[in-house]
Amino acid sequence: MIEVVDSEDQMWILFRDSDRFLFDANCNHSAFGYSVLIELTPQEAEAYQERGRKYLNELCKTIQDSAPIIRESKSPFKGRNLSTELADATTKAFLKWKSKNRL
Q1: CB–CB of 26/60 below 8 Å?
Q2: Does the reported pTM lie above 0.90?
Q3: In which order are the strands placed within the sheet that holds 12-17?
Q4: Rounded to whole angstroms, how far apart are CA atoms 79 and 69?
Q5: Ordered per-residue pLDDT tens for the chain, 103 residues
Q6: Could you say which of 8, 56, 67, 77 is the most buried, measured as most Cβ atoms within 10 Å of its Cβ?
Q7: What HEC string does 17-31 produce?
C-alpha cells in the first residue's frame, strides 16, 4: 500500500510502497508545469537516508533542470517516469495523508 512519507509544499512528495520509495517532483518551465514520479534507485534512497530533505530538494531541482518529458532532453530521468502507471494509487495516498494533516 502506497503512503506519503514527507512533502515539500509545491516541490515534491515522497511516497513509500513497501520497500521502495517513490518521489514525485513538481517541475515548472515558465508557463508549462508537470510532475514526474520516479522510484528512487538504491543509491538515491541511501542519499535520502543520509541527507534527508536537503537531498530531496536537490533531487527535485536536478529532475526539473533536466526536463525529462521534453522529447529532445537527454535527462537521466526520462525513462523512469511512473506518473501514469501509479497516478490513482499516489493520488489516493496523498488525499488520505492530506485529510489527516490539515491544520
Answers
A1: yes
A2: yes
A3: 2-8, 12-17, 20-29, 32-39
A4: 9
A5: 999 999 998 899 999 999 999 999 999 877 788 899 999 999 999 999 999 999 999 999 999 999 888 888 889 998 899 999 999 999 999 999 999 887 5
A6: 56
A7: ECCEEEEEEEEEECC
Reading the block at residue 83, the C-alpha cell is: 506518473
Answer whether 27's CB lies under 8 Å from 67's CB. Answer: yes
Q: What domain count does the chain have? A: 1
By CB atoms closer than 10 A (0-12, 13-18, 19+), residue 97 is middle
Q: Are 90 and 2 in contact (CB under 8 A)?
A: yes
Q: Which residues fall within 8 angstroms of residue 20, CB to CB, at 6 or more apart?
A: 39, 40, 45
C-alpha closest to that of 24 among 103, 72, 85, 71: 85
Of the chain, the end-to-end C-alpha distance in Å amounts to 25
Whole-angstrom Cα distance, residue 27 to residue 3? 22
